[in-house]
Amino acid sequence: MDELSLPSEIEESKLPKHIGIIMDGNGRWARKRHLPRIAGHRAGVKTVDRVVAFCRKVGIQALTLYAFSDENWGRPSMEINGLMKLLKEYLLKETPRMIRENIRFHTIGRIQDLPDFAQEVIAETKRKTENNDGLIFTLALSYGARREITDAARRLAEKAVKGELDVGEINQQHFEAELSTALLPELDLLVRTSGEYRISNFLLYQLAYAELYFTDTLWPEYQDKDLLEAILEFGKRERRFGLTGEQAKPNEKKSRKTLNPLSWKLGKKG
Ligand code: IPE
Ligand code: IPE
Ligand code: MG
What we know:
Elements: E1 18-22, H1 26-32, H2 37-58, E2 62-69, H3 77-100, E3 104-108, H4 116-129, E4 136-143, H5 145-161, H6 172-177, E5 189-192, E6 211-214, H7 224-236, H8 245-248, H9 252-259, H10 261-269
Parallel strand pairs: 1-2, 1-5, 2-4, 3-4, 5-6
Helix pairs in contact: 1-2, 2-3, 3-4, 9-10
The protein binds 3-methylbut-3-enyl trihydrogen diphosphate (IPE) (2 copies) and magnesium ion.
């Protein structure tokens, strides 16, 4: 499985720049085996390892994994504590590899809500990988898109009140600059595992033109070949960005540049 690589017929232009994954199904994986839920999360961490390595190998620019949502704070405290400890363990173990493999670690979400021991190791991993310019690996932790959006709106309102910004001039660029994903390329592909067909408060704004891919596989069982399948399916999709099929096909880049300046701009950033 480790040696899977992209078939030669896939063009680089058909690779998603930025993949987001809603990692789901750890609890059900554990239940099937009569194990505690945390055993499912532990198995899920191994999948994270595989997926990060695969994305790096294939040349994906950015990978964003939904690891803990705003709503997940409502889970039993034992599970939350277990997840936080796993996060620390994972970062301690994987930071050397991130350094070695030129991976830059990044987070979105309210890191200040996490326990101090988790915040410390996050800061450390970020610091040690900040000069890396390969894959940008982002964990969404204590993340909720509704809050991200309302926070962005509040910051713009504050700027307007202070006279730093003219209300009438607020546009999408201003808004996007306030989102936690401002430095990431535009989200191209969203994968959700475990047979659930919902977004669960992940990257609501950024998903506007992402291709969606759902699979029944539970996260601990997710393999390189499953992600490869999603990437190949992505390559077959015709992304029209609101244009007609005829407009979108012959010269996709040119028409996007002309008619969707925003996505063109963000695409270039990555
Ligand atoms: C996803 O697995 C991981 C987190 C949300 C932290 P779940 O824990 O949601 O697994 P299921 O949905 O109960 O199977
Ligand atoms: C979404 O999974 C959050 C993460 C993967 C971190 P959940 O399991 O929490 O989502 P719902 O409750 O099924 O919508
Ligand atoms: Mg779940």
